[in-house]
């Protein structure tokens, strides 16, 4: 009796299970009932890895080759996209060229849909691919040719650099050609510039170009007195000294209170910042009455402002010993370019090495060609201050 019940029970159970997956009609025909795709461990790519018009990959478990993918934007506009490859653990598809913003992702299989957990973020970029920028230096006011695919009429190239005055960018219309696009540099551009392509609200940074500079170029609020071997970076000297011809470096201090400065090319800006920071700290602590309201040499340089049309250059500093020596080497040429450097000794931002807090280096501009640069008392000497800036 128990055996008979068991035999009867097994077919009944099997029938119940089957009816969970199939529709059972009076003709005893069985039709599959689709279910929404079950997808787990979904991981969207980073926004920085997405480029409109290129392939993107969503990782996860449970994808199938028959899956259809839709992107649904923030206005609930749904767009079917081209799926290029599917495995159980990822799905690849082409991001629409005009995509931008946040999207929900819908996977459809056999008419049933699943909305994936998370947000697919597409940057608002200009979809330009296969970009090749000039590898050689470009002369001032020269032509820039960019190879690439995806440029359109009306695209703008915006050039910018950290050494231009705050907020200054150069917007230049692009001209299309067979290889991509081109434009001519306007006057005033120099050094290493980033290029942004702008199309409406979309922007894409496509890299950098180098606009060649040479010693003697008049730009950036002064005249170039030194350039590196690549003619990409350099230094600009102010058109004249600042303050009066007889300025003090600052107070003499204990060795432990020295700012800790360098002498090499490239150290002047950090030297200047450190000197002013240390002076302000010590003045607050020691309350030197003789220095109240006095601008030290480094501060005079930081406060320098050169107006050039609508621009204002404010990133000046006191040169290091080696930087000021480079100014001395070309002082005759600078004079021909209109730079007024009266015969004088001039402060550098390089303090004495070792355990000395009372002295800093100067450079003697009374000399014609002989380079003299020695230590002198920070507060005992009153000499010239000549600002420079870097690019």
From TrEMBL:
Signal peptide region: 1-23
UniProt cross-references to InterPro entries, sorted A to Z: Ig-like_fold
Domain of life from the UniProt record: Bacteria
Keywords: Signal
Protein name in UniProt: DUF1566 domain-containing protein
């Amino acid at each position: 009796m128990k055996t008979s019940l068991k035999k009867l029970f097994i077919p009944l159970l099997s029938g119940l299970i089957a009816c969970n997956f199939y529709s059972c009609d009076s003709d005893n025909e069985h039709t599959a009932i689709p279910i929404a795709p079950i997808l787990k461990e979904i991981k969207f790519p980073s926004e920085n890895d997405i480029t409109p018009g290129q392939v993107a990959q969503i990782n996860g478990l449970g994808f199938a080759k028959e899956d259809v993918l839709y992107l649904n934007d923030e206005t609930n506009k749904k767009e079917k996209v081209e799926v290029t490859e599917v495995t159980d653990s990822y799905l690849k598809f082409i991001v629409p060229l005009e995509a931008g913003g946040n999207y929900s992702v819908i996977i459809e299989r056999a008419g049933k849909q699943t909305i994936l957990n998370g947000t697919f973020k597409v940057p608002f970029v200009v979809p330009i691919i296969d970009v090749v920028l000039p590898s050689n230096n470009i002369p001032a006011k020269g032509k820039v040719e960019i190879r690439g695919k995806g440029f359109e009429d009306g695209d703008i190239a915006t050039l910018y650099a950290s050494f231009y005055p705050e907020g200054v960018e150069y917007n230049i219309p692009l001209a299309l050609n067979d290889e991509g696009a081109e434009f001519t540099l306007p006057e005033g551009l120099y050094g290493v510039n980033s290029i942004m392509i702008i199309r409406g609200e979309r922007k894409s940074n496509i890299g950098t170009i180098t606009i060649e500079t040479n010693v003697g170029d008049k730009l950036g609020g002064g005249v170039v007195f030194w350039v590196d071997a690549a003619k990409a970076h350099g230094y600009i000297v102010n058109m004249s000294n600042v303050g009066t011809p007889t300025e003090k470096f600052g107070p003499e201090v204990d060795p432990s209170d020295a700012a800790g400065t360098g002498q090499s090319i490239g150290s002047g800006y950090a030297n200047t910042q450190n000197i002013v920071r240390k002076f302000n700290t010590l003045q607050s602590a020691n309350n030197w009455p003789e220095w109240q309201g006095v601008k030290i040499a480094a501060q005079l340089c930081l406060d320098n402002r050169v107006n050039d049309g609508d621009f204002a250059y404010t990133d000046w500093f006191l040169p290091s010993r080696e930087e000021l020596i480079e100014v001395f080497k070309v002082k005759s040429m600078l004079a021909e370019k209109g730079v007024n450097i009266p015969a004088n000794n001039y402060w550098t931002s390089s303090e004495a090495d070792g355990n000395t807090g009372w002295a800093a280096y100067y450079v003697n501009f009374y000399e014609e060609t002989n380079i003299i640069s020695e230590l002198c008392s920070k507060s005992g000497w009153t000499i010239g201050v000549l600002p420079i800036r870097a690019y």
